[in-house]
Each structure stands twice: as structure tokens, then as C-alpha cells.
Design a protein that fits this description.
Elements: H1 3-8, E1 13-21, H2 27-36, E2 49-58, E3 61-70, H3 80-84, E4 89-95, H4 99-103, H5 105-116, E5 121-127, H6 139-148, E6 153-156, H7 165-175, H8 177-190, E7 210-211
Parallel strand pairs: 1-3, 1-4, 4-5, 5-6
Antiparallel strand pairs: 2-3, 6-7
């Protein structure tokens, strides 16, 4: 048995990603696009908490992402802190065509920090990039807010077109403890032009309307 197979057959590391944000911003669609590369235009509100998992093969390692989809409605808000407690990544989503959903991300990030302190990767995602004609939040404004809130990553995505969704999860994977050391040494050689980890054979993904804070 090769050393690679030996590593793969060892204990698989699991990382918990919690998706947060107001109702209707596209948290479920973001997960669905990543999991199945599909988009459903018929909106259905998440009730309580949903859970999905996906195995990712990166270099010679295998990890499992546990994706926790939370409801945006106020009546479910009290359930969410308990799901944040052991999370590795908090993905806070807003709708670029809704200023109200963007203004709410401060509170979501505050809730994350109350539960996790600095022991969590914070990711800010501006979804519905395809609604650019109805945009109420500029990418520059969102990037500045993401930096102010201490986010490690800011991206604009479109779950309808698939824009930047796979790249978003690749960037998240690069920051996970399992890969951080190897990626840091890579970035010392490549400076800012870091190589994106290929998760799903999606070479040539365009890194548009996005930045790593």
C-alpha cells in the first residue's frame, strides 16, 4: 500500500462550516450549487437547521466539510448559537441587491465572535451577483466592511450562474488548519498570486469581483 493510500485510509479530518445571514439571501442555494452544481429558482425558506456533508480530496489529504444551513427567520435565531460553538468556519451571506441584508452582517459576525472568539474563520459572501442592475451594495463597500469585521475572505457569488462558488470553497479550504502550513509555504514562493487548490477539476475558474481580505 502506498503512503498516499495509507494517509487516505487514516482518520478523516472534519471541518464544520455554518452558513449565516438574513432570510432569502441564498444560503441554501450556495450550499446546493457547491454540493450538486444545481440551482432551484423556486425559493423555499429553510426551517430550523439543515445539514449536509461533502468529502473533498486535496493533494494527498481527504477532508469532510460539514455544511450547516441555518434559517434566516427571527423565530429560529435562538437555535443558531448552539450550532456555532464548535464551528471552524462562519460563512455570513448577504444579498448585493438588499442593503438591509448587508447591514445585518455586523450582527451576525458579532454573534459568531461571542460564541467562538478568534477561533473561527469568518467569510463574507455577497450573493446574487447576477442582479448587478439592482445592486444596492458595492463590492468596494463590502470589502471594507469585511476587513473591518475581521473576515479572512470576501467574495461576490451568483448561485444562479455558479459564478465564484467553487472558487469560494477552494479559498476556504486553503485556510483550514489541515492545509494552512503547506499553503503558507506556497504563498511565500508565489506571493499574492497563490495557486487555487483544485477540488472538483474546475480549472480555469475566473476570480472576478472577489478578493481575499
Amino acid at each position: 500500500m502506498s503512503s498516499q493510500n495509507t494517509k487516505s485510509s487514516g482518520m478523516m479530518k472534519k471541518y464544520k462550516l455554518v452558513f449565516l445571514g438574513e432570510q432569502g439571501v441564498g444560503k441554501t442555494s450556495l450550499i446546493t450549487r457547491f454540493m450538486y452544481d444545481t440551482f432551484n429558482s423556486q425559493y423555499a425558506a429553510t426551517i430550523g437547521i439543515d445539514f449536509l456533508s461533502k468529502t473533498m480530496y486535496l493533494d494527498d489529504k481527504t477532508i469532510r466539510l460539514q455544511l450547516w444551513d441555518t434559517a434566516g427567520q427571527e423565530r429560529f435565531r435562538s437555535l443558531i448559537p448552539s450550532y456555532m460553538r464548535d464551528s471552524n468556519v462562519a460563512v455570513v451571506v448577504y444579498d448585493i441587491s438588499s442593503k438591509k441584508s448587508f447591514e445585518a452582517i455586523d450582527k451576525w459576525v458579532e454573534d459568531v465572535k461571542l460564541e467562538r472568539g478568534s477561533n473561527v474563520i469568518i467569510v463574507i459572501v455577497g450573493n446574487k451577483n447576477d442582479l448587478n442592475d439592482s445592486r444596492q451594495v458595492t463590492a468596494d463597500e463590502a470589502e471594507l466592511t469585511a476587513k473591518k469585521l475581521g473576515a479572512s475572505i470576501f467574495f461576490e457569488t451568483s448561485t444562479k450562474t455558479g459564478h465564484n462558488v467553487k472558487l469560494l470553497f477552494k479559498k476556504i479550504a486553503q485556510l483550514l488548519p489541515e492545509f494552512e502550513d503547506s499553503e503558507n509555504s506556497q504563498s511565500m514562493n508565489d506571493h499574492d498570486n497563490s495557486q487555487v487548490i483544485d477540488v472538483a477539476g474546475d480549472e480555469g475558474v475566473q476570480d472576478e469581483s472577489s478578493c481575499q481580505c
